[in-house]
Design brief:
By secondary structure, the chain is mainly β. It is 2% helix and 58% strand. The protein has one helix at residues 200-205, and strands spanning 26-38, 41-53, 64-76, 91-93, 107-110, 115-119, 122-127, 130-137, 140-148, 153-154, 163-177, 180-182, 185-196, 216-222, 226-233, 238-245, 248-252, 257-266, 273-283, 287-303, 309-326, 332-347. The chain is globular and about 50 Å long.
Length: 357
């Protein structure tokens, strides 16, 4: 893509630690979702670097830490096995206290041309519209290059105090795991967010301490000519829907989005009933998007960095089929490689051992 077609520069990927006051908290990430395949072998990877800074009386159960995070599923799922969920194996790292690093472990380099984040063996290099991720964590060694497919989706256009963007991209490179090296191709999505506010979670999502009853969804789908992104938090009536088609962005707000769970699965490993099939309809004066997505593999983990509770997070490999109908063109079929990220908060009843005094 040409320089004039994207809206991200290296400064948008910089680290914000130095701009945060002692009494403020910071949640910042530099993450990449990869969804691709090498022949019949499929991959779903979340490769992220995080910086968390707590404050006295705040919501975080940490003072200041940094850490890489890997969520990874791979394997072969033939067509006759994609109509149901599997109790598949998966890799999760960087989600618990003993895996966190001191803030000094994060190395960064920032210039007008590029920004580098490095924690442990993982390094992310930002040279928009191209990004490059390398390094190993938990036996998953990556060397992936991402190139933007169009302009980024800026979240702070819709949600106050959530500063950052989602960037869709094509992706290719290598992943070495279990003694094999694969050369997958596919799609990626870059998430670069930072929150600077002790009350950011309560103010932004309309509930204190991430306590609520509904699953929070972060879904994304890819095919050669169209990318779809949707995040929806029913408790606070917040939603962002985006479609990137042929370099043009179609936007949808909360009132434009209808989202239904169609089917559930009792996960035998976690003991949690999770949604595994979803119907999505998004309508605006510029376009209609309608599809059904069905998951067939998953990874999950508990994340307990909050003082008052913890979250369970699921990442699900899925397929999605439907239609995209722009106002200025013919309807187009959707046949997407899909990822459904679902998380739900749980309250830590009767325990205050992590509450800062």
């Amino acid at each position: 893509m040409s320089d004039g077609e994207y809206n991200v520069d290296p400064d948008d990927d910089r680290v914000h630690r130095d701009s945060v006051a002692d009494e403020e908290e910071l949640w910042e990430n530099h993450g990449w979702l990869f969804r691709g395949a090498d022949g019949d072998h499929e991959f779903m990877l979340w490769d992220a670097l995080y910086l968390l800074k707590g404050a006295p009386g705040g919501q975080f159960a940490v003072d200041e830490v940094c850490f890489p995070q890997t969520i990874f599923v791979h394997g072969e799922f033939p067509p006759d096995e994609r109509d149901r969920m599997h109790d598949n194996d998966f890799t999760v790292a960087g989600t618990h206290f003993h895996e966190y690093f001191s803030p000094e472990a994060m190395e960064t380099e920032e210039s007008d041309e590029e920004v580098r984040w490095r924690i442990g063996d993982r390094e992310h290099v930002s040279r928009p519209p191209v990004w490059h991720n390398t390094g190993e964590q938990a036996g998953v060694d990556v060397d992936l290059t991402f190139e933007a497919t169009g302009p980024a989706f800026w979240a702070d256009e819709d949600l106050e105090q959530i500063n950052g963007f989602e960037q869709t991209a094509t992706a290719e490179g290598t992943i070495a795991v279990d003694g094999e090296t694969y050369s997958p191709e596919g799609f990626g999505q870059h998430e670069k967010f930072h929150f600077v506010d002790p009350d950011m979670l309560e103010d932004s999502f309309g509930r204190g301490d991430w306590v609520g009853g509904e699953w929070w969804r972060w879904h994304t789908g890819f095919q050669d000519d169209i990318q779809v992104f949707l995040t929806i938090e029913p408790n606070s009536e917040s939603a962002i829907g985006r479609v990137l088609a042929d370099g043009e962005v179609y936007s949808f707000g909360y009132d434009d989005v209808t989202f239904h769970d169609v089917a559930y699965w009792d996960d035998p490993r976690s003991g949690i009933r999770i949604p595994v099939e979803w119907h999505v309809n998004m309508q605006s004066d510029r376009a209609v998007v309608d599809y059904t997505a069905s998951a067939y593999a998953r990874a999950y983990y508990l994340w307990d960095y909050l003082n008052t509770g913890y979250n369970v997070l699921y990442w699900q490999m899925a397929d999605a089929e439907g239609l995209f109908v722009p106002d200025d063109g013919p309807e187009r079929e959707l046949d997407m490689s899909y990822m459904g990220h679902t998380k739900r908060p749980f309250y830590r009843f009767g325990r205050n051992d992590r509450t800062k005094q």
